[in-house]
Amino acid sequence: MKSLHATKHELANASTQLDLLEEGVRDRLSLPLFQQKMQQADLYPLLATGVEILQINVGKMCNQVCKHCHVDAGPDRKEIMTRETMEQCLAALAASDIPTVDLTGGAPEMNPHFRWFVEECHKLGRHVIVRCNLTIIVANPKYHDLPEFYRDHGVEVVSSLPFYNADKTDRQRGTGVFKDSIRALQMLNAVGYGQEGTGLKLNLVYNPAGAFMPGSQEGLKRQFKRVLKDEFGIEFNDLYAITNMPVSRYLDYLFSSGNFDSYMEKLVNAFNPTAARGVMCRNTISVSWDGYLFDCDFNQMLDLPVESRVPQHISLFNAEALNNRDIVLHQHCYGCTAGSGSSCGGTTA
Amino acid sequence: MNPYYNAEDLKKFGKIGEFQETLAKKFFDYYGEVFAEGALTAREKSLIALAVAHTVQCPYCIDAYTVDTMEKGCSEQEMMEAVHVAAAIRGGASLVHGVQMMNKAKELSM
Q1: pLDDT tens sequence across A8-45
Q2: Which of A94, A159, A305, B59 is the most exposed place for a label (fewest CB within 10 A)?
Q3: Tell me, what's the ipTM?
Q4: CA of A167, closest CA in chain B: separation in Å?
């Protein structure tokens, strides 16, 4: 499977995605646009509350090609962050008191400067989260020592595992991904991740393998804990239930499976003002592989940079200006505000 | 439009209160409590509901509890096993009456 970008698919174009989302919500479904819904909830404009997390996307290159990927990542994507841009990120961190650095991709580990970057963030005393797809750990011998590397630098590992069996996981993430993910989780457990008393956090991310919303995060966590422990001896700390966002490959799936209208209708009707108040974009800044700033990773993939009144590149980072920015909103935001809400840390309501 | 079993009607279920508000409210309050976490988990209750939906052969309930069990992280194997439980009880309910037939037949036979 190739990326939408490589096949020159129409949905590889961000403005096409935005147009289709708006047209679908407003014209076909006759539902309120997201901005209107936020106005009704007295949440427009949505204001940032500070910058507590610097989420850095170090590149779109990945060893997997997942069907729902909002990044449209894959082995054919060559856009990765340079050391120079990483240095600009480090300068921004050093000049601010942002406590958490959240590294994502693609598979962030495939960036050749990844380990150096983690070490430097660690030296600055920041809490480092790595969004690890698990299979990268077993993909090549040069990655086999990642669990020890993470342990030595106090990294919190957050990993996607959409289901506790091979069938559903492989349908979403590719053949053999479940088996490799289980092996990687066992390797992480072996160095102390997910084990009581070690302080080494291993959190899993659940997202539905289809056109439906996640159920109760607590209930899913209980089920994953039971099955992974009983069948594979695996332990983990938390499970984050994330709603699939109608962006990029998941948007393509919604259209090609005929589920777009019913899925969007469900998201809109499940709008929850409490979830909307807790969305992660309010305390996060997302940095793209080439250093531009966004309110979140989804806005990044939709080419919706932070509002034009504030600096838009990491080289011009100004925490004070960013703290007071208006969040840029569009129809995909319904994904984060539906039901119990959704964020990189799970539910928000 | 087919006047029977229109899938869009499921979304209108909550509107049954238009004709009788008090009883509808009591029903939906009760319904909500029944499916909350209790001695049985919400997940277990959803699988039971899926089985019962097949027993009463309600297409609305089947759609609703297929989605609900998927949202609650049930596997496709678990969902189909729930349907087999419904089928086994339905089949068993017929077959157990075979004893009645046997009793009667033996009563009338030499």
Answers
A1: 999 999 999 999 999 999 999 999 999 999 999 999 99
A2: A94
A3: 0.86
A4: 9
